[in-house]
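Why do we care about 3D structure at all? Because function follows from shape, and shape follows, mostly, from sequence. That is the central idea of this module. The next example makes it concrete: a single protein chain, its amino acid sequence, and then its structure expressed as tokens.
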Amino acid sequence: MTIDASILARLDAIESRLAIGQLPIRYAMAIDGRDLDMWVSLFVPDVQVGRDRSGRDALRAFIDPAVRTFGRSVHQVVGHRIDLDPDDRDRATGATYCRAEHEVGDRWIVMAICYFDDYQRIDGTWLFRRRREQHWYAVDALERPQAVGFNSWEGSADPTLPGRFPTWQPFWESGPGPGQA
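And the structure:
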């Protein structure tokens, strides 16, 4: 019995999506469990860290002090889009929606995040090549995001969403917004 090449390609696509789909939850559980060995293993061995460093050791050196700035955390993956590269079956991109909560002293910081990801399959294993975090807000659970300029977590980057979506500005330029006629 021979298996048609298109069936093999479809099977590979299904298996790839399933494997890639596990990366964000493994990432979340590794951060929340402070399993930095697991966390760095989710990235390609030559992962770029900043402008001039690369590799998993550099990534670990970057994340270790960052996760020490908060106590408990809960990263909830709430949606994941995966786009397989039609020209390279070992590459893909995606976006992961996440609600993250962090214990920062006596505050409970809540964030709405979208990770923009690049994936690569190396030796049959799908890994993150690059992960870019963008967020809508970072506020204490007792605050409304609008009341604190969408960011009351000192040291957190300024929110870039929703303006980072390429369709956001053109949409509002094409017609009135809330409360406008």
